[in-house]
Design brief:
Distance between the termini: 63 Å
Structural class: alpha+beta
Number of strands: 11
Radius of gyration: 26 Å
Order of helices and strands: HHHEEHHEHHEEHEEHEEEEHHHHH
Oligomer: single chain
Strand order of the largest sheet: 2-1-4-5
Shape: globular
Helix content: 40-55%
Strand content: 5-15%
Length: about 425
Amino acid sequence: MRRIFEEKAKPIPISREVVLKAYKKVRKNKGGAGIDHVSIEKYESDLSNNLYKLWNRLASGSYFPPAVKEKKIKKDNGKIRRLGIPTVSDRVAQQVIKDLIEPRLEAEFHSSSFGYRPLKSAHQALTCVRENVRNYAWVIDLDITAFFDNVDHEKMLKALDRHVEERWIKMYITRWLQAPVSKENGELLVNQRIGTPQGGVISPLLANLYLHYTFDKWMDLHFADLAFVRYADDIVIHCRSEKQAQFVLNKLNLRLGECNLSTHPDKTSIVYCKDYRRMEVGKKVKFNFLGFSFRPEGKPSKRGGMFLGFDCAISKKSYSKIVKEIRDFKFHRWNCTWQQIANLLNVKIRGWIQYYDKIKRRTLTSVFHRLHNRLLTWITNYYKRFKGSKRRAIAYLRHVHRRYPTLFYHWEIGYHLV
């Protein structure tokens, strides 16, 4: 069998270790097949030849990315999000270049940018917003219209020039930006001058670079006294007054226009962070960010009683999505055991809790109330002795909870039956 790599002088300094490291990352992240229908498993069945060919072409400057396969994802609002799925080999190639340039770009990126960055997370972004709303009374909830579809290639490459000297790296990034897109109907889109496909390995890094100069640096230059939190193209800007918020938004609309972008007219809004100190009426007082809804809510006081605070909880959209997942399992119709149900659900339950409970404890209480109701339906269907008696089914569920308190993950960490 041919060795994965052969020692030959190449004009481009891409080492075998870099390609192998990139492949391992792509394999770990998984993902579907691209336009060539080659899955990771199939790619791995001839790994030696596949990696040799890729390394040889990358290191010689002769690598050209194949077309990106378009995949349409239906959004919650009924609209369509278009993803671009590269081939496995192309994902490895993108990972090679990403690994080479990411450290130098990371050294430049803003501390208030959190999306798709090493050692940064959505939880950190949410924590910053929670802290900022205590100090700023107003928020601009900013939504950029179809950001990934409107990235200007010329401006992207201009930003890249500031940090990347290697012509061969810029050559490959230009090829990825201009790679054709194979649509679901078979049409091939070529010679595009705007857009970077969502789904590419290098796309999030390039998106952060574009918004670093479009937004982050611009905010530092013009509104350095204000705070903002950005997670990819989801942005929250904190202001001191409604008048200031409107002024910033007007200026930002002009700025985005200069960069081939625009704010979504229906999804962008100015929000009042109403709490016990801020009691103006007739203002919008709620916004959503990263699956959470920020809004006024009653909070217990250390001195007893309650006070009006401004904080976050799981958003209605996220709640509905989780409830739909529970409903779609349809386990209440199955002829199965308690352990089989637990094995099915616990992977999902852990994921929900690790994301939502990390920001605010017990935020999923209403979700698990719905889950328990579905368990009651299963009990009355599965056990004939409980048929038609919800009261007895509840008593039996409480018995199971007491006897097997670690059966479901949320029981194990302290979520109890209501």
